[in-house]
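Supplementary Text 2. Reproducibility record for the structural model of the 202-residue chain.

All settings were left at their defaults, and a single model was retained for analysis rather than an ensemble. We include the record here because the model underlies the residue-level annotations in Supplementary Table 4.
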Amino acid sequence: MLSVPLDTPLSEAIPLFQQSDPLWVTDASGQWVGCLHQADAMRAVLQSFQYLEAYFTTLIETLDLSISAIDEEANVVVWSQVAEQLFSLKANELLGKPITNFFSAEMLAMLKTLQTGEAVHRKHHQPREDLFVVINTNPIRLNGKIIGAVATETDITSQVRLNQELYDATKKVHHLQQEMARLKPSSDPFHEIKGKSKAIAH
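Retained model, structure tokens:
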């Protein structure tokens, strides 16, 4: 029967169950202090996963951002409520499916991050023709390998449209000012009269 030190991480202890179940647990002096059964270890792992999932889910739905993530096959694994509102697509429509089924590959910054490993920070992006966002992306790595990518997006469509409207309005006002200046009569009533006679000169 195998023994392991009391401070052995579960990630190192679990593979040892293939050789022995239970594992004897020893203290710093090498004295036996108890045993660890595989079933107990699995329950501890499951509880840790459930805690992490609860924190993760709450965090995703608390942030006022569109949050999405894809796995290494570009299948959607995270699609937040804000993402649902922003893109008018429900999570149950996307989860587990290739993100390219719903968006053009050329417009997916997250897909490029998955492929290249390059992060994007506060970049203006247009995932659809009618939508403008500020996007951040990061690759998800496990043991040095890219296993997915995550993106957060903030909708700036209204600001972009407002800026365009202000630009167009400014151009119109400028053009109108030029037209008014051209048509405005001179304060000198004889401004348009040309000649060289002394009467005109004076």
